Structure formats: C-alpha cells, structure tokens
Amino acid sequence: MRTELAYCYQRYRSMATRRLRDEIVADDVMQAFALKALEHFEQLRDAKAVQAWLRRLFEATLIDLGTRCQRDVASGRPNAAEL
C-alpha cells in the first residue's frame, strides 16, 4: 500500500494544485490525505482495489480540507500553513 501511495502522491498533488490554485493548500491536502491513508489502510479489504480506495480517499480529503482552507483564506482567517 505504501508503494501505491508513493506512486500516486505526485500525480494527486498536481491535481490538487490545479483544482485549488494554491500550492500551500494543496500541500496541506496531500499531508492530510497521506496521513489518512496510512492510518486507515487496515480498512482496505481487497489489495487489488488499493488504487480506487486511494482515489476515493484523496477526493474526500480534497473536498473536505481544500474547501475549508479556501473558505478560511477568503474570510481572512489563518489556515494551518499560516500558523
């Protein structure tokens, strides 16, 4: 699983940067994504489905954290990168 995570990390980071238009927020999303993947990999039931599982986890993290960080920046509140 760690190999697959390493393999997709840069590709997903590029996707996050394009969608969010902010490299710092994209880095925050990627850190949260990698942490979730490593913490919850025991939930993966089928080793063949690791790519799909990682993709779903990435998308959920991107939507959740990315939207929250962008909203904080727009409102003037400090985000994790500024603390």
Task: Report what the structure shows.
The protein is an all-alpha fold and 83 residues long. 76% of the residues lie in helices and 0% in strands. Helix 1 (2-20) runs parallel beside helix 3 (50-75) and helix 2 crosses helix 3. The model has no long low-confidence stretch (mean pLDDT 84).
Keywords, separated by commas or semicolons:
0% strand, mainly alpha, 83 residues
Helix/strand-derived category reads mainly alpha
Mean pLDDT across all amino acids: 84
Order of helical and strand elements? HHH
Major sheet? none
Radius of gyration (Å) = 13 Å
Number of discrete helical segments: 3
Strand content: under 5%
* Low confidence ranges: none
Topology:
Blueprint: H1 2-20, H2 23-40, H3 50-75
Short account of what is shown:
By secondary structure, the chain is an all-alpha fold.
